[in-house]
Amino acid sequence: RILRLCSVAGLAISAHWAVPAWAAGAMTTGGLTSQPIGHYDFCKARPNECSIHPADLEPARMTDGLWR
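The chain above was modelled as a monomer; its predicted structure follows.
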């Protein structure tokens, strides 16, 4: 009897945790937003990291050397 009660309680708790994830569905998006403040601060401190504009925008071909 105690085992059954614990099992039911465990399932109820698990289901309770899963409800917000199930109810949210896909992430809704809105209009344009501002740049995140952390990214802004990072780029102000390290402008060379944020001014990279590669000519080749294709995904890198996965090789053994690149994988390691």
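Residues 2-24 form the longest helix (23 residues).
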